[in-house]
């Protein structure tokens, strides 16, 4: 064994203690460190280490060169994208995932697969899906949508008498995918799956909304003259967290043949809030569902889950044929037969541990508190003169712009000023043709005091534009 490996193995408990100390120092400073950096710290142009430093010196080098430039994306005022932090149990689960180092490809050598199955059941119950929905962990919402749409592609083939997973896309022909306000990952998934980005047709939305107009969707389906299609519904859009009427969309299947995929990446967690649970009504009627866990479940990157009613079609797409892997069981296939990956880390463990630690009630409190924070920021913006809301804060995202002259350049300058203040980080968007900013509340640490600081940073930055 290499001498540095042997030495680190001998002193492993002490070295893991040093690692813990370094992590604790970072987390202790999380609420006050600059939330984001516009430029990364420069590297020193060093080549690949040949001799090696050993873990203790490598940790010190990491802290010196790279840690100062890391964002506080796990902290309470990082409001860009839809980014959760990591609960204490989530962090512990992720550390143990690395320590256990389980490959959850099959159930033949450990209980890891059973832990994932239990976690999937927890999550299914948490967001209100039926027992008919089977699930598996994937890396994020993009992969969850990709898996769901791959199963949908196989379903379209089934309707046309073609097994796409065997015969290929050439045997399938053109497929139409309909959605009101699809997330960008849907187009990416269609590209990866060979259906093509142009297969996606956007359908009219309700006036002043991002929710699909169900009558317009019905008309678009009628135009297909009975051809099977894929409908991507939204449970929480990016800009305004708008929800399609899922039950009404699902009811159209009585008249038209289509696979219903619901992108509920973070919107599924509205089910945990008594004031917002109605928004997810009908989610259990979906054929496949995307739920992203490193958003509102607040577990570390990367973690998401995909659900579907048609595990048989899922296995047809993703099964791996090899004697050493074994054939997939029709009733209970190993996870390697359900997702693009064969080798998979135990992503379920942080989710299992945080759900076991805090339960539905604890995670529901996070959702409710985040929604209250979003409403408080929206109220502050509406009461002032520097900004204007572009949509109501329906759940956890505030979409707003400058009250005067909201050009892309002024919005970019405003955002840069807020970032440079170190107080907050927000991401840009365009809503109804207007350049805007989004503040997405999804971190378990965020409180009303953080809302006050964000509002003050925005006011200061806006005043500096004049």
TrEMBL record:
One Pfam entry name: Pyridoxal_deC
Record-linked SUPFAM superfamilies: PLP-dependent transferases
PROSITE patterns: DDC_GAD_HDC_YDC
InterPro entries from the UniProt entry: Aromatic_deC, PyrdxlP-dep_de-COase, PyrdxlP-dep_Trfase, PyrdxlP-dep_Trfase_major, PyrdxlP-dep_Trfase_small, Pyridoxal-P_BS
Molecular function GO terms recorded: transaminase activity
Cofactor: pyridoxal 5'-phosphate
Record keywords, A-Z: Aminotransferase, Decarboxylase, Lyase, Pyridoxal phosphate, Transferase
Family under the similarity heading: Belongs to the group II decarboxylase family.
PANTHER family documented for this protein: GROUP II PYRIDOXAL-5-PHOSPHATE DECARBOXYLASE (PTHR11999), MIP05841P (PTHR11999:SF70)
Designated name of the protein: Aspartate aminotransferase family protein
UniProt organism field: Actinacidiphila acididurans
């Amino acid at each position: 064994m290499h001498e540095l490996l042997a030495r680190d193995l001998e002193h492993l408990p002490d070295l893991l203690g040093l690692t813990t100390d370094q992590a604790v120092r970072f987390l202790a400073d999380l609420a006050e460190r600059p939330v984001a950096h516009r430029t990364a710290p420069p590297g020193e142009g060093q080549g690949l280490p040949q001799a090696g430093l050993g873990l203790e010196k490598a940790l010190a080098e990491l802290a010196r060169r790279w840690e100062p430039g890391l964002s506080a994306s796990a902290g309470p005022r990082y409001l860009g994208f839809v980014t959760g932090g990591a609960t204490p149990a989530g962090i512990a689960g992720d550390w143990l995932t690395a320590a256990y180092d389980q490959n959850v490809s099959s159930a033949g050598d450990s209980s890891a697969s059973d832990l994932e199955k239990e976690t999937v059941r927890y999550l299914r119950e948490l967001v209100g899906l039926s027992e008919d929905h089977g699930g598996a962990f994937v890396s994020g919402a993009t992969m969850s949508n990709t898996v769901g749409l791959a199963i949908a592609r196989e379903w379209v083939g089934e309707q046309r008498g073609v097994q796409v997973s065997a015969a290929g896309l050439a045997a399938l022909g053109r497929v139409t995918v309909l959605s009101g306000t699809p997330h960008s990952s849907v187009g990416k998934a269609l590209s990866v799956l060979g259906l093509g980005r142009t297969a996606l047709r956007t359908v009219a939305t309700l006036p002043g909304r991002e929710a699909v107009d169900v009558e317009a969707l019905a008309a678009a389906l009628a135009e297909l003259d009975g051809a099977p299609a894929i409908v991507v519904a939204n449970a929480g859009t990016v800009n305004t967290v708008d929800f399609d009427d899922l039950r009404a969309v699902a009811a159209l299947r009585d008249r038209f043949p289509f696979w219903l995929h619901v992108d509920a990446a973070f919107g599924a967690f509205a089910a945990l809030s008594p004031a917002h649970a109605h928004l997810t009504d009908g989610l259990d009627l979906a054929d496949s569902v995307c739920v992203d866990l490193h958003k509102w479940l607040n577990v570390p990157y990367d973690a998401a889950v995909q659900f579907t009613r048609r595990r048989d079609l899922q296995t047809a797409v993703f099964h791996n044929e090899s004697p050493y892997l074994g054939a997939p069981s029709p009733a209970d296939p190993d996870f390697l037969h359900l997702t693009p990956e064969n080798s998979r880390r135990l992503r379920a463990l942080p989710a299992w541990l945080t759900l076991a630690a805090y339960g539905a009630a604890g995670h529901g409190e996070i959702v409710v508190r985040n929604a209250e924070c979003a409403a408080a920021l929206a109220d502050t913006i509406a009461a002032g003169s520097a900004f204007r809301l572009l949509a109501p804060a329906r759940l956890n995202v505030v979409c707003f712009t400058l009250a005067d002259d909201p050009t892309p350049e002024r919005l970019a300058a405003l955002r840069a000023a807020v970032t440079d203040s170190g107080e907050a980080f927000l991401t840009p968007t365009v809503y109804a043709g207007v350049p805007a900013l989004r503040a997405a509340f999804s971190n378990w640490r965020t409180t009303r005091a953080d809302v006050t600081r964000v509002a003050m940073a925005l006011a200061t930055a806006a005043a500096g534009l004049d």
